[in-house]
Specification:
By secondary structure, this protein is α/β, with parallel strands linked by helices. The chain has three domains: 93 residues, no CATH class; 36 residues, no CATH class; 170 residues, Rossmann fold, CATH 3.40.50.410. It is built from 14 helices and nine strands. The strands form two sheets. It has a six-stranded mixed β-sheet with strand order 6-5-4-7-8-9, with helices on both faces. Strands 1-3-2 form a three-stranded antiparallel β-sheet. α6 packs across α8 and α10 runs parallel beside α11. The longest helix has 15 residues.
Length: 367
């Protein structure tokens, strides 16, 4: 990275020690295997003038693809220049965006990372398969609202509180022992919130390839905020990945899941997968458990098996919600055999093809 900054400085870009240090810190927080994120991070930090964009794009492609670098331009030294006079360098304001006519940059940037849209305002037409990297914080905010909705129900157990709740007479008697029997302090007890369990069943078959990783990111964000989450991935069989999702880094979670799951992008047998989950994880299915099943509904197994196993699961859990990425498309109708068999046993059938659709999940948990 230091050598790349020296190359840029040799070709006239205003890159100094501070910009080099900022670039090193920036790449430590992004995925180095994603070219688009590395490109935009370095471009935002190391390019301060519009006329330097073409040179940065050319040098970025040459340097990181191990191609021969262009020779730095020869600069004539003016003997009459006043070297004692300092030069003030100003950076472009943050509001200035990418120039419209930038053909060399289009060859470098990954098409999934388009400029112009903000992560805080996502239109309903945004397909999750083309979700930008800077939109992933929106999924984290959705996950935080989901966890708050889960924890909004009071439980039966009570815990000590200074101001709220009913008076704790037994606790007041114990505290009075230290004051000679005089009940000076009156503690209170309030009902502690009970955090229900959330079970996520994610379809990772071939038809769900374009959505699986991004929906897995949502499951990872939820798991970082509460430990009462059980995550399963399934195609022709089901695999529990709760332990693999408990690591701090999403990249590390993906590496562990790839090592543990051998049926990724396979066929689809939803009924048999749900049957194995019912048989092995019956202890986590109770009236405080909410199940999210993320699938497009394409089923190659027996639809009767799917209907029977979903009915069995629905009798145990509090609520069963089916998220279908295809439901947000135009002229969608649940004509697949698996969907027709599952619909009578599903509480909510909602689309999951946009961030706006996923924002509805916290409200479903509160209802």
């Amino acid at each position: 990275m230091t050598r790349f900054c020296r190359v840029l400085r040799g070709h006239g870009l205003l890159v100094g020690p501070q910009e080099t240090a900022d670039a090193i810190r920036a790449v430590s927080h992004i995925d180095l295997m994603t070219e688009g994120r590395v490109y935009w991070s370095l471009r935002a930090l190391l390019v301060s003038r519009q006329e330097h964009l073409a040179a940065f794009d050319r040098l970025f492609a040459q340097f990181w693809n191990f191609l021969p670098l262009d020779a730095p331009p020869h600069r004539e030294v003016d003997p009459t220049a006043d070297f004692g006079q300092t030069r003030t360098v100003g950076r472009l304001p943050r509001g200035i965006g990418v120039p419209e006519d930038d053909p060399e940059s289009k060859d470098t940037v990954i098409q999934l990372l388009r400029s112009g849209a903000s992560a805080r305002r996502v239109t309903s037409a945004r397909d999750l398969s083309t979700l930008r990297g800077d939109d992933l914080p929106e999924l984290s905010r959705i996950a935080a609202r989901m966890v708050r909705a889960l924890a909004s129900r009071p439980g039966r157990r009570r815990k000590r509180d200074r101001r709220k709740g009913v008076p704790d007479l037994r606790g007041a008697m114990r505290l009075s022992l230290s004051t000679g029997g005089d009940p000076i302090r009156l503690p209170r007890l309030r009902r502690a919130p009970r955090v229900p369990r959330l079970m996520l069943l994610l379809d990772v078959s071939g038809s769900m390839d374009r959505y699986a990783l991004l929906l897995l990111q949502l499951a990872f964000a939820v798991g970082q905020r509460t430990k009462r989450v059980e995550t399963f991935v399934f195609s022709t069989e089901a695999t529990r990945v709760t332990r693999e999702m408990s690591v701090p880094s999403f990249g590390e979670a993906l590496r562990r899941i790839s090592a543990a799951v051998s049926h990724w992008s396979g066929g689809t047998r939803i009924g048999e997968s749900v049957a194995s989950i019912n048989a092995s994880c019956e202890h986590v299915q109770d009236r405080f458990t909410t199940v999210f099943l993320l699938s497009d509904g394409w089923e190659t197994g027996d639809p009767a098996t799917l209907a029977r196993e979903l009915a069995r699961m629905r009798l145990r859990v509090r609520k069963l919600i089916w998220l279908n990425p295809m439901a947000g498309t135009k002229d969608f109708q649940p004509l697949a055999r698996g969907l027709r068999a599952a619909m009578p046993h599903v509480d909510h059938f909602i689309p999951a093809s946009s961030v706006e659709h996923l924002k509805r999940l916290p409200a479903l948990l509160r209802s």
